[in-house]
Amino acid sequence: MRRGTIAHLDPAAPSDSTVRRSFPEKRTTIAHLDPAALRGSCTVVVGCQWGDEGKGKVVDVLAERADLIARYQGGANAGHTVYQREEQFILHQVPSGILHPGKRCLLGNGVVVDPVQLFAEIDNLAGRGIETRGRIGVSARAHVVFPWHVALDNAAERAARRRIGTTGRGIGPAYEAKTGRRGVRIADLLDPARGRERVGRGIEWARRRLRELGADPDDAGTIDDALAVTGRLPEVAADVGEEIAAALAGGKGVLLEGAQGTALDVDHGTYPFVTSSNTTAGAAAVGSGIGPTAIDAVVGVAKAYTTRVGNGPLPTAFDSEMDALVRDLGGEFGATTGRPRRCGWFDAPVVRYAARVNGLTGIAITKLDVLDTLPELRIATGYRLRGDAGVPFPACSWQLQEVEPIYEVLPGWRSPTTEARAVADLPRNARAYLHRIEELVEAPIAMISVGARRSQVIRAD
Ligand code: IMP
To answer: Does ligand 1 come within 6 angstroms of the Cβ of 52?
Structure first.
Protein backbone atom coordinates (compact mmCIF):
# COMPACT_ATOMS: atom_id res chain seq x y z
CA MET A 1 0.00 0.00 0.00
CA ARG A 2 1.34 3.47 -0.82
CA ARG A 3 1.91 5.74 2.19
CA GLY A 4 1.72 9.46 1.68
CA THR A 5 3.56 10.38 4.85
CA ILE A 6 7.15 10.76 5.86
CA ALA A 7 6.22 10.48 9.55
CA HIS A 8 8.15 7.24 9.53
CA LEU A 9 10.06 5.24 6.95
CA ASP A 10 8.28 2.19 5.63
CA PRO A 11 9.92 -1.03 6.80
CA ALA A 12 7.65 -3.03 4.47
CA ALA A 13 9.56 -1.91 1.40
CA PRO A 14 12.68 -4.04 1.70
CA SER A 15 10.92 -7.21 2.83
CA ASP A 16 8.29 -6.84 0.07
CA SER A 17 10.94 -6.94 -2.57
CA THR A 18 12.66 -9.83 -0.82
CA VAL A 19 9.46 -11.84 -1.07
CA ARG A 20 9.16 -11.09 -4.76
CA ARG A 21 12.70 -12.21 -5.34
CA SER A 22 12.40 -15.43 -3.36
CA PHE A 23 12.21 -17.79 -6.31
CA PRO A 24 10.64 -21.20 -5.86
CA GLU A 25 12.79 -23.87 -4.36
CA LYS A 26 15.02 -25.56 -6.89
CA ARG A 27 13.72 -28.97 -7.88
CA THR A 28 15.87 -31.48 -9.60
CA THR A 29 13.31 -34.04 -10.55
CA ILE A 30 11.24 -34.35 -13.65
CA ALA A 31 8.68 -36.52 -11.82
CA HIS A 32 6.35 -33.55 -12.21
CA LEU A 33 6.65 -30.05 -13.63
CA ASP A 34 6.84 -27.20 -11.20
CA PRO A 35 3.75 -24.94 -11.40
CA ALA A 36 5.39 -22.37 -9.11
CA ALA A 37 7.69 -21.46 -11.97
CA LEU A 38 4.79 -19.99 -13.92
CA ARG A 39 2.85 -18.40 -11.07
CA GLY A 40 2.33 -14.67 -10.81
CA SER A 41 0.81 -11.95 -12.90
CA CYS A 42 3.91 -10.63 -14.68
CA THR A 43 6.04 -13.22 -16.46
CA VAL A 44 9.09 -12.71 -18.65
CA VAL A 45 9.85 -15.22 -21.40
CA VAL A 46 13.51 -15.17 -22.36
CA GLY A 47 15.79 -17.21 -24.65
CA CYS A 48 18.56 -19.23 -22.97
CA GLN A 49 20.74 -20.00 -26.00
CA TRP A 50 21.49 -18.21 -29.30
CA GLY A 51 17.89 -17.38 -30.19
CA ASP A 52 15.40 -19.52 -32.10
CA GLU A 53 14.62 -21.50 -28.95
CA GLY A 54 10.89 -21.52 -29.63
CA LYS A 55 9.93 -18.50 -27.52
CA GLY A 56 7.06 -17.75 -29.92
CA LYS A 57 5.44 -21.09 -29.16
CA VAL A 58 5.94 -20.71 -25.38
CA VAL A 59 4.49 -17.18 -25.43
CA ASP A 60 1.59 -18.44 -27.52
CA VAL A 61 0.85 -21.14 -24.91
CA LEU A 62 1.22 -18.82 -21.92
CA ALA A 63 -0.74 -16.03 -23.64
CA GLU A 64 -3.93 -18.00 -23.06
CA ARG A 65 -3.98 -16.72 -19.48
CA ALA A 66 -2.43 -13.29 -20.07
CA ASP A 67 -4.36 -10.16 -20.94
CA LEU A 68 -1.47 -8.18 -22.34
CA ILE A 69 1.70 -9.28 -24.16
CA ALA A 70 4.61 -6.89 -24.69
CA ARG A 71 7.95 -7.15 -26.46
CA TYR A 72 10.79 -5.32 -24.74
CA GLN A 73 13.82 -5.37 -27.09
CA GLY A 74 15.05 -6.24 -30.56
CA GLY A 75 13.21 -5.51 -33.76
CA ALA A 76 12.45 -7.18 -37.05
CA ASN A 77 15.57 -9.36 -36.63
CA ALA A 78 13.36 -11.66 -34.55
CA GLY A 79 11.36 -14.36 -36.24
CA HIS A 80 8.78 -16.02 -34.03
CA THR A 81 7.01 -18.95 -35.63
CA VAL A 82 3.56 -19.72 -34.25
CA TYR A 83 0.87 -22.12 -35.43
CA GLN A 84 -2.85 -21.62 -35.20
CA ARG A 85 -4.47 -24.93 -36.02
CA GLU A 86 -2.46 -25.99 -39.08
CA GLU A 87 -1.70 -22.44 -40.20
CA GLN A 88 1.83 -21.06 -39.78
CA PHE A 89 2.47 -17.43 -38.83
CA ILE A 90 5.97 -15.94 -38.74
CA LEU A 91 6.03 -12.74 -36.70
CA HIS A 92 8.94 -10.31 -36.74
CA GLN A 93 7.54 -7.23 -35.04
CA VAL A 94 4.15 -8.06 -33.60
CA PRO A 95 4.17 -10.03 -30.29
CA SER A 96 3.29 -13.72 -30.58
CA GLY A 97 0.17 -13.17 -28.43
CA ILE A 98 -1.65 -11.59 -31.38
CA LEU A 99 -3.15 -14.95 -32.37
CA HIS A 100 -5.25 -14.96 -29.18
CA PRO A 101 -8.37 -12.91 -29.93
CA GLY A 102 -8.87 -9.81 -27.82
CA LYS A 103 -5.43 -9.68 -26.19
CA ARG A 104 -3.58 -6.39 -26.27
CA CYS A 105 -0.09 -6.61 -27.86
CA LEU A 106 2.49 -3.94 -27.18
CA LEU A 107 5.97 -2.97 -28.35
CA GLY A 108 7.92 -1.39 -25.51
CA ASN A 109 10.39 1.47 -25.59
CA GLY A 110 13.30 -1.02 -25.80
CA VAL A 111 12.16 -2.29 -29.19
CA VAL A 112 13.40 -0.73 -32.42
CA VAL A 113 10.40 -0.49 -34.70
CA ASP A 114 10.55 -0.97 -38.44
CA PRO A 115 7.30 0.61 -39.67
CA VAL A 116 7.46 -1.07 -43.09
CA GLN A 117 7.69 -4.48 -41.47
CA LEU A 118 5.20 -3.66 -38.69
CA PHE A 119 2.41 -2.51 -40.99
CA ALA A 120 3.09 -5.24 -43.57
CA GLU A 121 2.64 -7.73 -40.71
CA ILE A 122 -0.48 -6.03 -39.38
CA ASP A 123 -2.03 -6.00 -42.87
CA ASN A 124 -1.04 -9.61 -43.47
CA LEU A 125 -2.64 -10.67 -40.17
CA ALA A 126 -5.81 -8.74 -41.00
CA GLY A 127 -5.88 -10.37 -44.45
CA ARG A 128 -5.74 -13.78 -42.77
CA GLY A 129 -8.68 -13.02 -40.52
CA ILE A 130 -6.82 -11.89 -37.37
CA GLU A 131 -8.43 -8.71 -36.02
CA THR A 132 -5.66 -6.31 -34.99
CA ARG A 133 -7.59 -3.02 -34.75
CA GLY A 134 -7.17 -1.46 -31.32
CA ARG A 135 -5.04 -4.39 -30.19
CA ILE A 136 -1.54 -3.11 -31.05
CA GLY A 137 0.26 -0.33 -29.24
CA VAL A 138 3.81 0.92 -29.75
CA SER A 139 5.67 2.95 -27.15
CA ALA A 140 6.11 6.58 -28.18
CA ARG A 141 9.58 6.24 -26.65
CA ALA A 142 10.58 3.45 -29.04
CA HIS A 143 13.14 4.24 -31.75
CA VAL A 144 12.32 3.84 -35.42
CA VAL A 145 14.33 1.74 -37.88
CA PHE A 146 14.61 3.59 -41.19
CA PRO A 147 15.85 2.42 -44.61
CA TRP A 148 19.20 4.10 -43.94
CA HIS A 149 19.73 1.82 -40.91
CA VAL A 150 19.24 -1.17 -43.17
CA ALA A 151 21.65 0.30 -45.75
CA LEU A 152 24.24 0.95 -43.01
CA ASP A 153 23.86 -2.56 -41.56
CA ASN A 154 24.51 -4.15 -44.94
CA ALA A 155 27.33 -1.74 -45.89
CA ALA A 156 29.08 -2.36 -42.53
CA GLU A 157 28.87 -6.11 -43.00
CA ARG A 158 30.23 -5.85 -46.56
CA ALA A 159 33.13 -3.68 -45.38
CA ALA A 160 33.95 -5.70 -42.24
CA ARG A 161 37.07 -7.77 -41.87
CA ARG A 162 35.21 -9.98 -39.39
CA ARG A 163 31.52 -10.22 -40.22
CA ILE A 164 28.94 -10.68 -37.50
CA GLY A 165 26.47 -12.28 -39.90
CA THR A 166 23.62 -9.92 -38.94
CA THR A 167 20.07 -10.36 -40.15
CA GLY A 168 20.50 -7.21 -42.27
CA ARG A 169 17.43 -5.59 -40.68
CA GLY A 170 19.19 -2.39 -39.56
CA ILE A 171 19.17 -3.36 -35.88
CA GLY A 172 22.76 -2.44 -34.95
CA PRO A 173 22.69 1.00 -36.63
CA ALA A 174 19.28 1.81 -35.06
CA TYR A 175 20.56 1.00 -31.54
CA GLU A 176 23.81 2.87 -32.28
CA ALA A 177 21.76 5.93 -33.20
CA LYS A 178 19.76 5.53 -29.99
CA THR A 179 22.79 5.45 -27.70
CA GLY A 180 24.52 8.08 -29.84
CA ARG A 181 21.49 10.34 -29.19
CA ARG A 182 20.85 10.71 -32.90
CA GLY A 183 17.85 8.39 -33.05
CA VAL A 184 14.32 9.24 -34.18
CA ARG A 185 11.61 8.17 -31.75
CA ILE A 186 7.94 7.69 -32.47
CA ALA A 187 7.30 10.64 -30.16
CA ASP A 188 9.36 12.84 -32.53
CA LEU A 189 7.19 11.83 -35.46
CA LEU A 190 4.01 12.88 -33.65
CA ASP A 191 5.16 16.45 -34.28
CA PRO A 192 5.60 16.66 -38.10
CA ALA A 193 8.09 19.57 -38.12
CA ARG A 194 10.26 17.98 -35.46
CA GLY A 195 9.99 14.60 -37.17
CA ARG A 196 11.12 16.04 -40.50
CA GLU A 197 14.08 17.75 -38.88
CA ARG A 198 15.24 14.61 -36.98
CA VAL A 199 14.81 12.43 -40.07
CA GLY A 200 16.81 14.95 -42.16
CA ARG A 201 19.64 14.85 -39.66
CA GLY A 202 19.59 11.05 -39.59
CA ILE A 203 19.87 10.90 -43.36
CA GLU A 204 22.73 13.42 -43.43
CA TRP A 205 24.66 11.37 -40.89
CA ALA A 206 23.94 8.12 -42.75
CA ARG A 207 25.10 9.58 -46.09
CA ARG A 208 28.46 10.50 -44.55
CA ARG A 209 28.86 7.09 -42.96
CA LEU A 210 27.84 5.20 -46.10
CA ARG A 211 30.49 7.12 -48.04
CA GLU A 212 33.10 6.12 -45.41
CA LEU A 213 32.05 2.50 -45.79
CA GLY A 214 32.50 2.69 -49.57
CA ALA A 215 28.75 2.43 -50.21
CA ASP A 216 26.43 4.65 -52.23
CA PRO A 217 25.21 7.57 -50.05
CA ASP A 218 21.94 7.62 -51.99
CA ASP A 219 21.11 4.29 -50.31
CA ALA A 220 20.15 6.43 -47.30
CA GLY A 221 16.97 7.44 -49.17
CA THR A 222 15.12 10.71 -48.90
CA ILE A 223 13.19 12.49 -46.16
CA ASP A 224 9.92 12.07 -48.05
CA ASP A 225 10.49 8.33 -48.53
CA ALA A 226 11.27 7.93 -44.85
CA LEU A 227 8.24 9.90 -43.72
CA ALA A 228 5.97 8.06 -46.15
CA VAL A 229 6.50 4.79 -44.26
CA THR A 230 5.97 6.30 -40.81
CA GLY A 231 2.57 7.82 -41.63
CA ARG A 232 0.58 5.18 -39.72
CA LEU A 233 2.72 5.18 -36.55
CA PRO A 234 0.63 7.83 -34.72
CA GLU A 235 -2.41 5.53 -34.87
CA VAL A 236 -0.58 2.93 -32.74
CA ALA A 237 1.49 5.20 -30.47
CA ALA A 238 0.96 4.38 -26.79
CA ASP A 239 2.35 4.78 -23.28
CA VAL A 240 3.36 1.15 -22.84
CA GLY A 241 4.78 1.40 -19.31
CA GLU A 242 1.59 3.08 -18.12
CA GLU A 243 -0.60 0.45 -19.79
CA ILE A 244 1.34 -2.41 -18.24
CA ALA A 245 1.31 -0.81 -14.79
CA ALA A 246 -2.45 -0.23 -15.04
CA ALA A 247 -3.04 -3.80 -16.19
CA LEU A 248 -1.05 -5.19 -13.25
CA ALA A 249 -2.80 -2.89 -10.80
CA GLY A 250 -6.12 -4.18 -12.18
CA GLY A 251 -5.09 -7.79 -11.48
CA LYS A 252 -4.50 -8.63 -15.13
CA GLY A 253 -1.83 -10.98 -16.47
CA VAL A 254 1.14 -9.61 -18.39
CA LEU A 255 3.69 -11.47 -20.50
CA LEU A 256 6.95 -9.79 -21.45
CA GLU A 257 8.30 -11.44 -24.59
CA GLY A 258 12.05 -11.49 -25.20
CA ALA A 259 13.65 -11.87 -28.61
CA GLN A 260 16.98 -13.50 -29.56
CA GLY A 261 18.68 -15.25 -26.61
CA THR A 262 21.01 -14.83 -23.64
CA ALA A 263 24.12 -15.73 -25.65
CA LEU A 264 23.24 -12.93 -28.11
CA ASP A 265 22.88 -10.28 -25.37
CA VAL A 266 25.17 -7.31 -26.02
CA ASP A 267 26.58 -7.52 -22.45
CA HIS A 268 26.22 -11.15 -21.47
CA GLY A 269 26.52 -12.88 -24.83
CA THR A 270 29.38 -13.97 -27.05
CA TYR A 271 30.54 -10.43 -27.81
CA PRO A 272 31.10 -9.17 -30.47
CA PHE A 273 29.01 -11.91 -32.13
CA VAL A 274 25.83 -10.65 -30.52
CA THR A 275 22.84 -8.52 -31.32
CA SER A 276 22.83 -4.86 -30.27
CA SER A 277 20.36 -5.00 -27.38
CA ASN A 278 20.09 -6.57 -23.94
CA THR A 279 18.04 -9.69 -24.52
CA THR A 280 18.11 -10.88 -20.91
CA ALA A 281 15.34 -10.62 -18.31
CA GLY A 282 16.80 -7.52 -16.65
CA ALA A 283 16.02 -5.65 -19.86
CA ALA A 284 12.34 -6.61 -19.65
CA ALA A 285 11.71 -3.92 -17.03
CA VAL A 286 13.83 -1.25 -18.75
CA GLY A 287 12.48 -2.02 -22.20
CA SER A 288 8.82 -2.04 -21.25
CA GLY A 289 8.75 0.85 -18.82
CA ILE A 290 8.02 -0.87 -15.50
CA GLY A 291 10.13 -1.49 -12.41
CA PRO A 292 11.88 -4.82 -11.80
CA THR A 293 9.82 -5.52 -8.66
CA ALA A 294 6.71 -5.83 -10.85
CA ILE A 295 8.08 -9.05 -12.37
CA ASP A 296 7.00 -12.29 -10.67
CA ALA A 297 8.37 -15.06 -12.87
CA VAL A 298 11.06 -15.53 -15.50
CA VAL A 299 10.66 -18.50 -17.83
CA GLY A 300 13.74 -19.38 -19.84
CA VAL A 301 13.28 -21.19 -23.12
CA ALA A 302 15.90 -23.69 -24.29
CA LYS A 303 15.83 -26.10 -27.17
CA ALA A 304 16.53 -29.77 -26.29
CA TYR A 305 19.70 -29.31 -28.39
CA THR A 306 21.53 -26.17 -29.55
CA THR A 307 21.43 -24.03 -32.69
CA ARG A 308 23.04 -20.85 -33.86
CA VAL A 309 22.61 -18.69 -36.95
CA GLY A 310 25.16 -16.03 -37.87
CA ASN A 311 28.85 -16.08 -37.01
CA GLY A 312 30.57 -16.77 -33.67
CA PRO A 313 31.53 -19.79 -31.57
CA LEU A 314 29.29 -22.81 -31.04
CA PRO A 315 31.25 -25.21 -28.79
CA THR A 316 28.95 -28.23 -29.11
CA ALA A 317 28.57 -28.07 -32.92
CA PHE A 318 27.81 -31.41 -34.58
CA ASP A 319 29.97 -32.95 -37.25
CA SER A 320 28.65 -32.26 -40.74
CA GLU A 321 26.58 -35.45 -41.03
CA MET A 322 24.74 -34.97 -37.72
CA ASP A 323 24.41 -31.27 -38.49
CA ALA A 324 22.56 -32.02 -41.75
CA LEU A 325 20.40 -34.68 -40.06
CA VAL A 326 19.24 -32.53 -37.12
CA ARG A 327 18.78 -29.44 -39.30
CA ASP A 328 16.47 -31.50 -41.44
CA LEU A 329 14.61 -33.09 -38.49
CA GLY A 330 14.19 -29.75 -36.72
CA GLY A 331 13.61 -27.56 -39.80
CA GLU A 332 16.51 -25.43 -38.62
CA PHE A 333 16.45 -22.54 -41.05
CA GLY A 334 16.30 -18.90 -39.92
CA ALA A 335 12.72 -17.58 -39.74
CA THR A 336 13.93 -14.10 -40.74
CA THR A 337 16.69 -14.78 -43.26
CA GLY A 338 16.15 -18.42 -44.27
CA ARG A 339 19.83 -19.11 -43.47
CA PRO A 340 20.64 -22.66 -42.33
CA ARG A 341 21.23 -22.79 -38.58
CA ARG A 342 24.28 -24.59 -37.22
CA CYS A 343 23.21 -27.37 -34.86
CA GLY A 344 24.87 -29.04 -31.86
CA TRP A 345 24.38 -31.02 -28.65
CA PHE A 346 22.70 -29.51 -25.59
CA ASP A 347 25.21 -27.16 -24.00
CA ALA A 348 24.48 -27.12 -20.26
CA PRO A 349 27.09 -24.44 -19.37
CA VAL A 350 25.32 -21.93 -21.65
CA VAL A 351 21.88 -22.66 -20.21
CA ARG A 352 23.16 -22.75 -16.61
CA TYR A 353 24.72 -19.35 -17.26
CA ALA A 354 21.40 -18.17 -18.70
CA ALA A 355 19.58 -19.45 -15.60
CA ARG A 356 21.82 -17.28 -13.46
CA VAL A 357 21.92 -14.16 -15.62
CA ASN A 358 18.14 -14.15 -16.05
CA GLY A 359 17.21 -15.35 -12.54
CA LEU A 360 15.01 -18.06 -14.04
CA THR A 361 12.08 -19.32 -11.99
CA GLY A 362 11.53 -22.09 -14.52
CA ILE A 363 12.59 -23.43 -17.85
CA ALA A 364 10.67 -24.53 -20.94
CA ILE A 365 12.37 -27.21 -23.03
CA THR A 366 11.32 -27.14 -26.66
CA LYS A 367 11.65 -29.41 -29.69
CA LEU A 368 12.19 -32.55 -27.61
CA ASP A 369 10.51 -34.52 -30.41
CA VAL A 370 13.31 -33.60 -32.85
CA LEU A 371 15.56 -36.03 -30.92
CA ASP A 372 13.04 -38.92 -31.02
CA THR A 373 14.94 -41.02 -33.57
CA LEU A 374 18.50 -40.57 -32.32
CA PRO A 375 20.09 -43.72 -30.84
CA GLU A 376 22.31 -41.82 -28.45
CA LEU A 377 22.52 -38.27 -27.11
CA ARG A 378 25.24 -36.15 -25.67
CA ILE A 379 25.03 -33.30 -23.19
CA ALA A 380 27.96 -30.96 -22.61
CA THR A 381 28.24 -30.77 -18.84
CA GLY A 382 31.22 -28.41 -18.77
CA TYR A 383 34.12 -27.01 -20.76
CA ARG A 384 37.84 -27.73 -20.79
CA LEU A 385 40.15 -24.91 -21.80
CA ARG A 386 43.81 -25.76 -22.43
CA GLY A 387 43.55 -28.77 -20.14
CA ASP A 388 41.73 -26.88 -17.41
CA ALA A 389 38.35 -28.53 -16.74
CA GLY A 390 35.44 -26.78 -15.11
CA VAL A 391 35.89 -23.35 -16.73
CA PRO A 392 32.71 -21.28 -16.57
CA PHE A 393 31.02 -19.73 -19.62
CA PRO A 394 33.86 -17.39 -20.65
CA ALA A 395 33.63 -13.64 -21.19
CA CYS A 396 35.67 -13.83 -24.40
CA SER A 397 34.43 -15.26 -27.66
CA TRP A 398 37.91 -16.38 -28.59
CA GLN A 399 38.03 -18.50 -25.42
CA LEU A 400 34.66 -20.01 -26.19
CA GLN A 401 35.99 -20.77 -29.66
CA GLU A 402 38.80 -22.76 -28.05
CA VAL A 403 36.95 -24.67 -25.31
CA GLU A 404 36.48 -28.37 -25.59
CA PRO A 405 33.08 -29.54 -24.30
CA ILE A 406 33.05 -32.31 -21.70
CA TYR A 407 30.31 -34.68 -22.80
CA GLU A 408 28.10 -37.12 -21.01
CA VAL A 409 26.45 -39.74 -23.21
CA LEU A 410 22.84 -40.79 -22.63
CA PRO A 411 20.78 -43.40 -24.45
CA GLY A 412 18.13 -42.17 -26.90
CA TRP A 413 14.46 -43.19 -26.56
CA ARG A 414 13.71 -44.01 -30.17
CA SER A 415 9.97 -43.57 -29.92
CA PRO A 416 7.69 -40.63 -30.70
CA THR A 417 7.01 -38.05 -28.02
CA THR A 418 4.69 -35.88 -30.12
CA GLU A 419 1.50 -37.21 -28.52
CA ALA A 420 2.76 -36.91 -24.91
CA ARG A 421 0.67 -34.50 -22.83
CA ALA A 422 2.00 -35.44 -19.38
CA VAL A 423 5.48 -36.25 -18.10
CA ALA A 424 4.33 -39.83 -17.49
CA ASP A 425 3.58 -40.23 -21.24
CA LEU A 426 7.25 -39.66 -22.11
CA PRO A 427 9.60 -42.61 -22.68
CA ARG A 428 11.82 -43.36 -19.69
CA ASN A 429 15.01 -42.29 -21.47
CA ALA A 430 13.43 -38.98 -22.47
CA ARG A 431 12.56 -38.36 -18.82
CA ALA A 432 16.12 -39.24 -17.82
CA TYR A 433 17.47 -36.81 -20.45
CA LEU A 434 15.27 -33.99 -19.12
CA HIS A 435 16.10 -34.84 -15.53
CA ARG A 436 19.80 -34.55 -16.30
CA ILE A 437 19.24 -31.19 -18.01
CA GLU A 438 17.31 -29.93 -15.00
CA GLU A 439 20.13 -31.01 -12.66
CA LEU A 440 22.82 -29.43 -14.79
CA VAL A 441 21.15 -26.10 -15.47
CA GLU A 442 19.80 -25.74 -11.93
CA ALA A 443 16.35 -24.53 -12.91
CA PRO A 444 13.08 -26.43 -12.65
CA ILE A 445 11.44 -27.52 -15.89
CA ALA A 446 8.02 -25.89 -16.18
CA MET A 447 7.03 -26.81 -19.72
CA ILE A 448 8.04 -29.27 -22.43
CA SER A 449 7.17 -28.72 -26.07
CA VAL A 450 6.89 -31.81 -28.28
CA GLY A 451 5.81 -30.32 -31.60
CA ALA A 452 4.98 -27.10 -33.37
CA ARG A 453 1.23 -27.08 -32.66
CA ARG A 454 -0.22 -25.26 -29.64
CA SER A 455 -1.59 -28.50 -28.21
CA GLN A 456 1.76 -30.29 -28.38
CA VAL A 457 2.91 -29.28 -24.96
CA ILE A 458 3.34 -30.67 -21.47
CA ARG A 459 2.89 -27.95 -18.89
CA ALA A 460 3.11 -27.64 -15.17
CA ASP A 461 -0.44 -26.47 -14.50
P1 IMP B 1 21.42 -8.46 -35.76
O2 IMP B 1 20.54 -8.61 -34.56
O3 IMP B 1 20.65 -8.51 -37.06
O4 IMP B 1 22.33 -7.29 -35.65
O5 IMP B 1 22.38 -9.75 -35.81
C6 IMP B 1 23.38 -9.99 -34.85
C7 IMP B 1 23.50 -11.48 -34.55
O8 IMP B 1 22.30 -11.93 -33.90
C9 IMP B 1 23.64 -12.38 -35.78
O10 IMP B 1 24.44 -13.50 -35.43
C11 IMP B 1 22.22 -12.85 -36.05
O12 IMP B 1 22.18 -14.05 -36.77
C13 IMP B 1 21.72 -13.00 -34.63
N14 IMP B 1 20.27 -12.87 -34.51
C15 IMP B 1 19.57 -11.71 -34.51
N16 IMP B 1 18.27 -11.97 -34.34
C17 IMP B 1 18.15 -13.30 -34.20
C18 IMP B 1 17.04 -14.16 -33.95
O19 IMP B 1 15.89 -13.76 -33.81
N20 IMP B 1 17.34 -15.49 -33.87
C21 IMP B 1 18.60 -15.97 -33.97
N22 IMP B 1 19.65 -15.20 -34.19
C23 IMP B 1 19.43 -13.87 -34.30
So the answer is: yes
Residues carrying an active site annotation: 52, 80
Question: In testing the pocket of ligand 1, which one of 81, 114, 260 has its CB within 8 Å of the most ligand atoms?
Answer: 260
Quick check: CB of 259 below 6 Å from ligand 1?
A: yes
pLDDT of residue 112: 98
Ligand 1, closest atom to CA 74? 2
Domains annotated for the chain, with CATH where assigned, are 5-30+299-459 (3.90.170.10), 39-139+237-297 (3.40.440.10), 143-228 (1.10.300.10)
Ligand 1 neighbour 145 (Cβ under 6 A): no
Atom of ligand 1 nearest to the CA of 169: 3
Pocket test of ligand 1: the residue of 111, 308, 309, 397 to mutate, having most ligand atoms within 8 Å of its CB, is: 309
The answer on pLDDT for 170 being more than 70 is yes
Q: Which of the pair, 338 or 53, is modelled with greater confidence?
A: 53
Q: Is the CB of 358 under 6 A from ligand 1?
A: no
pTM confidence score: 0.92
Whether ligand 1 lies within 6 angstroms of the CB of 340 is answered as no
pLDDT digits (tens, 9 = 90+) for 209-239: 999 999 999 999 999 999 999 999 999 999 9
> What is the pLDDT of the chain when averaged over all its residues?
92
* Strands 376-385 vs 388-391: parallel, antiparallel or unpaired: antiparallel
Q: What is the pLDDT of residues 59-110, one digit of tens each?
A: 999 999 899 999 999 999 998 888 887 888 989 999 988 999 999 999 999 9
